[in-house]
TrEMBL record:
The keyword Oxidoreductase applies. Homotetramer. Pfam families: Aldedh. The keyword ATP-binding does not apply. This is Aldehyde dehydrogenase 1. It comes from Papaver somniferum.
Length: 504
């Protein structure tokens, strides 16, 4: 494995926003408490941010409820909302450099990736739903009696968004963009590890003209801030992305409070199936992309829920695949995310770093063969070598559990039926990949795997118009596409009598 020296040469901007954002203003928490936010490159403190709790959530919900029940945002035309969202997107594009640096120092994201992909993706996501805001239509109903009926699509109300740390910017707008287009108001709890870009987006939303109370940011921790959102009696919906274990807690809180609507995008242990007819070079590159790159050429390793961490290779090319995969993994450049040659930055924090290393140790203890990697890189920061295991069995924890790190479990199969059975042998169902030149085979396997998205001869092929969400214990409800907009709308039927009409 190749490493580069730490090269922290970029000028770090002043951290301008560290408080809560409630009702259009940056404010201290009610308790006055703050917590440290850490730079995963070094393990050192960046700054302290306000720590929200139940009282702060109450204030944010009060502001959001007032903005929804009596404010102008839900009552604007979709065209007007769309214009403001377009302005919001303009402001993001004008500040790409600063926002990308915030995600680099706060989440360990590769700077080049943030500037080229993550932050532009956020702006484009806003534009997609801005364009949809004036195209929210109900239906005219053909009733069976002397009645006329139609449906209205109305915003669901006050929404609580709980977002993860692996894609701070992209996930912020996966949730906020369709909710804004629908006319909802909202409270966002960014991950406690990565609050900085969310607070910056709050600032930009104010400049764009989003009315006070529509978008509120409450920093804090899951057991306090997150729990207050999930159990709040005046929140109408919660949208959560995170672990399956916490997803259960979210649903329980929603059920025992006001039965609020819940959508969940949870864990994954996605299979990548590589058949004998695949081009070996392409197959290896896609497999490494699936668990190491995370997207395109730059990103943090493995910290994505759809990582193709279970790789099944047909026996005819298995040995050649193992050799080539090890060779390329060892050449990976691990280092500071500001360095232009870096392919892999640090894991997000010490807790996640230790979790990944403990899974690697578990794999070794259970008898898997460590083909490459498995150790910390350097003595400072949360860097881990790209890791590949062979001689892996289906009942091992490195195969069953979501590790959320740069760890690939590499396995062999003989028949198509065996590959399908192994791919479905998981409690998750978020994504899957298939690599083959046989169209009939691709069609058969893609229809046989129980997962929310199937990528054929590609991986991480996300698009604004392509719905994304899981099966089984990977959750329910879609992000992206028009289906995401539907999550933030509810249908109202209106029926009136008709008299002496020549037809129904």
């Amino acid at each position: 494995m190749e490493t580069k020296p730490t090269a922290i040469t970029n000028e770090i901007p002043e951290i301008k926003f560290t408080k809560l954002f409630i009702n259009g203003e940056f404010v201290d928490s009610v308790s006055g408490k703050t917590f440290e936010t850490i730079d995963p490159r070094t393990g050192e403190v960046i700054t302290r941010v306000a720590e929200g709790d139940k009282e702060d959530v109450d204030l944010a919900v009060k502001a959001a409820r007032e903005a929804f029940d009596h404010g102008k945002w839900p009552r604007m035309s979709g065209y007007e909302r769309g214009r403001i969202m377009m302005k919001f997107a303009d402001l993001i594009e004008e500040n790409v450099e600063e926002i990308a640096i915030l995600d680099t120092i706060n989440a360990g994201k590769i700077l080049a990736h943030g500037k080229m992909l993550d932050i532009p993706f956020a702006a484009k996501n806003l534009r997609y739903y801005a364009g949809a805001a004036d195209k929210i239509h109900g239906k005219t109903l053909k009733l069976s009696q002397e009645m006329q009926g139609y449906t209205l699509l109305e915003p669901i109300g006050v929404v609580g968004h709980i977002i993860p740390w692996n894609f701070p910017s992209a996930m912020f707008f996966h949730k906020c963009a369709p909710a804004l287009a629908a006319g909802c108001t909202m409270i966002v709890k960014p991950a406690e590890q990565t609050p900085l870009s969310a607070l910056y987006y709050a600032h930009l939303s104010k400049l764009a003209g989003i009315p006070d109370g529509v978008l509120n940011i409450v920093n804090g921790f899951g057991p306090t801030t997150g729990a207050a959102i999930c159990s709040h009696m005046d929140i109408d919906k919660v949208s959560f992305t995170g672990s399956t274990e916490v997803g259960r807690v979210v649903m329980q809180a929603a059920a025992t409070s006001n039965l609020k609507v819940v959508s969940l995008e949870l864990g994954g242990k996605s299979p990548l199936i590589i058949f004998d007819d695949a081009d070996l070079e392409k197959a290896v590159d896609l497999a490494l992309l699936g668990v190491l790159y995370n997207k395109a050429r730059f990103n943090k390793l493995g910290e994505i829920c759809v990582a193709g961490s279970r790789v099944y290779v047909q026996e005819g090319i298995y040995d050649a695949f193992v050799t080539k995969a090890a060779e390329k993994a060892k050449a990976w450049v691990v280092g500071d995310p500001f360095h232009p040659s870096t392919q892999q930055g640090p894991q997000v924090d010490k807790k996640q770093f230790n979790k990944i290393l403990s899974y690697i140790d578990q794999g070794i203890r259970e008898g898997a063969t460590l083909l490459t990697g498995g150790k910390q890189v350097g003595e400072k920061g949360f860097y881990i070598e790209p890791t590949i295991f062979t001689d892996v069995k289906e009942d091992m924890r490195i195969v069953k559990d979501e590790i959320f790190g740069p760890v690939m479990a590499l396995m062999k199969f003989k028949t198509v039926e065996e590959a399908i059975q192994k791919a479905n042998n998981t409690r998750y169902g978020l994504a899957a990949g298939i690599i083959t030149n046989d169209l009939n085979l691709a069609n058969t396997v893609s229809r046989s795997i129980r997962a929310g998205v199937i990528w054929i001869n590609c991986y991480f092929a996300f698009d604004f118009d392509c719905p994304f969400g899981g099966y089984k214990m990977s959750g329910f409800g879609k992000d992206l596409g028009m289906e995401a907009l539907e999550k933030y709308l509810q249908t109202k039927s209106v029926v009136t009598p008709i008299y002496n009409s020549p037809w129904l």
